[in-house]
Amino acid sequence: MSVVTMKPLAEVTQEAIRILCKEMGLVNTVRFVNQFTVGYGNYTEEREQLFADLTLDDIITEIRRRKTQERSAP
Question: Does residue 36 sit in the same domain as residue 57?
């Protein structure tokens, strides 16, 4: 009998979206996911709080770092 390690839900969601994008394409993945989300909150306020202390260069650097990290992950 094998033991299954449970991943955090956020990680499972990211992996599922990555697989859906690969198999169905971005547009159909977005259409699929949208049927389960109704949206909430105020995106503009949340975005301003989230990125308040970051410059555009900081954000771009972080995006590039994460892409490099994804490519090197097994």
Answer: no
